[in-house]
Amino acid sequence: MSKTKKTDKQRIKELSLEIDILDRMLASLVDVLEKKGILTSEEWEKEIKSKIETSAKTMQSFREVES
User: Fold this and answer.
1) pLDDT of residue 19
2) Comparing C-alpha atoms, which of 44, 4, 14 is closest to residue 26?
3) What is the mean pLDDT for each group of 10 consecutive residues in the chain (67 residues)?
4) Among 6, 32, 56, 66, which one is least packed by beta carbons within 10 Å?
5) What is the domain range of residue 57?
6) What is the pTM of this model?
């Protein structure tokens, strides 16, 4: 049983690291787009809010699917 808990902890750590990497990649992409004048922070934030609102209305969360 101890081995299972350790495996779960390892999986959580791996997922956390993957999320951190994806967060950095996304932030870097947005920085490049801002520097090139393709996207502003305001546009980016507006788009995120829109996607979140749409997802809340139309999609199931992966947490709901997981349980």
Assistant:
1) 95
2) 44
3) 73 94 95 95 92 80 61
4) 66
5) 2-66
6) 0.64
Strand (E) or helix (H) holding 30:
helix 2-35
Cα–Cα distances in Å, from 65 out to 42, 49, 59, 61? 32, 22, 10, 7
Contact indicator for 39, 30 with CB cutoff of 8 Å: yes
Number of domains in the chain: 1
Question: What's the pLDDT at 35?
Answer: 96
Burial of 54 (0-12, 13-18, 19+ CB in 10 A): exposed
Distances from the Cα of 46 to the Cα of 19, 25, 28, 53, angstroms? 22, 20, 18, 11
